[in-house]
Amino acid sequence: MSKTSTFEGWQGSQSRNSETQRVRYESAAARKVTELLAFAGIGVNGSEPWDIQIHDERFFNRALGEGSIGVGESYMDGWWDVPALDEFFTRFRRADLASKVHDLKTALLVLKTRALNLQTMQRAKQVAQAHYDLGNQLYQAMLDRRMQYTCAYWKGAATLDQAQENKLHLICRKLQLTPGMTLLELGGGFGGLAQFAAKEYGCHVVSYNISREQVAFGRDLCKGLPVRFEQKDYREAAQEPGCFDRVVSIGLCEHIGYKNYRQFMQLAHERLKDEGLFLLHTIGSNESYSYTDPWIHKYIFPNGLIPSMAQLTTAWEGRWVAEDWHNFGPDYDRTLMHWWENFEHAWPGLRPTYGDRFYRMWKYYLMASAGSFRSRRLQLWQIVLSKGDISSYTPVR
Fold first, then answer.
1. Is 113 part of any domain?
2. Structural domain boundaries enclosing 70
3. pLDDT for 128-170, tens place per residue?
4. Secondary element (H or E) of residue 43
5. Domains in the chain: how many in total?
């Protein structure tokens, strides 16, 4: 849907609901924010489930003055609500409203990402501490039984457990795994793929991950299997002796940073045997950026960055042949909504540990993410790469 048709649709809705949609604020900031939201088909204190309900008038100045951080923090503080937050963000992202607000905090973050490498080995530890080590209690309540914290594959699946098992089979089939193969995993999550590849496909797996909590969980999960976990940065895999039949990276690329993509692609190339395959599973952006959303950077994924197609292909130019590029981004919307339902159901038991402000932060994160995929601003890519030394490759779906 175009921005023009979205705005015209909103105007029609306004005329039908003139009383309930009437804006009650007269400040310049309120008028500006209301105008921006209208462009996305979002009303202020309106009757639609995606309309924003203002509880504190200070929200308007904070939104304009602090951009993404101001909008997110004011939600965490209870200054506004939306009945259907996922739909609010779908419209917000489809209209690309963030690009229409120019605040100092975002400008400073942009400059910082261009001047510095935010994803050095030392800085990389920050996201593990801030996000992945929040406590396995949280993730066990939210995720499927295999603890997959990446997009599920919903083809033919009715439940989250089925969809995540589909994803694991899809990865293993795309890699053409057979018993006895060696597999290097860069970014291992909770160990679910390592266990699956070892148990179901008979592989020997070495998995690199900087998260203390995830590595401990994975080691317990994979007891008795030919799996070795290294609590180390992915770059330290350069010291692994020998090469591997296959290399896989699931959900790591979002933490690598654009200044390190080429080094990452070179590492995977060096660790892979001739005639091998490398599978990269990552969220993808329609546009190239040097920075992530400032609120996400501050509260969810410090130093994260979603790669674009241009950034990835530039990084692997001259090294890799793309054998298959599979986009199933809409499946992430559905996955996130299932995570939200699980989290919401488990919240009474989680509340004493995490507190109400965390609840609003986590809801904002999951709903904003779902809206980004539903609006098609973000994608989910599985890319199969070879060194160009195989005669052919047949894509798997």
1. no
2. 3-102
3. 889 999 999 999 999 999 999 999 999 999 999 999 999 999 9
4. none
5. 2
